[in-house]
Amino acid sequence: MAMERLKGIGNQFYTLNLVPGKKVYGERLVKDANGEWREWNPFRSKLCAGLHNGLMAEHFAIHEGSNVLYLGSAEGTTVSHVSDIIGEEGLVVGVDVSPHVMSKFSALVESRENILPLLGDANQPETYASELEGMKFDVIVQDVAQKNQAEIFSKNWELFAHPKSVGYLVIKSKSVDFTKPKEQVLKQEMKALGKHIKVEQILSLEKHEKSHFLLCVRWQ
């Protein structure tokens, strides 16, 4: 992986630790001449699982200095690695509807100034749009367990994406409809995507997360 803050070593991916010496969720730390690297666990991160399952390098758009909107940040496991990659010049806004997990997620901000925690419902992006003051994001990531996942992503895309934005949408088929085959749910959700969303890559995350897919999308 030809990015200076994200690299593959063997069959694992690592991000350059923004806060050397500090772990976030018990991950392994590895040092080399360039600094300290945090092992990125694909069983704890759908985005990392995408890298392990064939997400093309040209489709991975999170770089140093990127502005990222992360919907469904939970306690911040994946967001912490995004924070590593974007470095001090970037910003990742983590949105979650749960006050409980947001309190834990907010603790990351104490040592990582490039993270902005935002308590809000991703299904109602208009309620937190004013807090983002018209910001547009280079990358939008969504990992939420609700029935209308494509609709939620589309709402946020329309408000916060720009013509060069890239998106990563996790489709949790059992959360959408547990009675239907996962492939049918995937097709259903893809049809529900907004008109400005073009799917460029579809990845099955079955090796790491049952009945999950990751869609890489761009502006259309």
From TrEMBL:
It is an enzyme of class 2 (transferase). GO terms for biological process: box C/D sno(s)RNA 3'-end processing; tRNA processing. Keywords: Methyltransferase, RNA-binding, rRNA processing, Transferase, tRNA processing. It comes from the Archaea. One of its GO terms (molecular function) is rRNA methyltransferase activity. InterPro entries: Fibrillarin, SAM-dependent_MTases_sf. S-adenosyl-L-methionine binds at T77, T78, D96, V97, D121, A122, D143, V144, A145, Q146. Its EC number is 2.1.1.-. Involved in pre-rRNA and tRNA processing. Utilizes the methyl donor S-adenosyl-L-methionine to catalyze the site-specific 2'-hydroxyl methylation of ribose moieties in rRNA and tRNA. Site specificity is provided by a guide RNA that base pairs with the substrate. Methylation occurs at a characteristic distance from the sequence involved in base pairing with the guide RNA. Belongs to the methyltransferase superfamily. Fibrillarin family. Interacts with nop5. Component of box C/D small ribonucleoprotein (sRNP) particles that contain rpl7ae, FlpA and nop5, plus a guide RNA. This is Fibrillarin-like rRNA/tRNA 2'-O-methyltransferase. It comes from Candidatus Iainarchaeum sp.
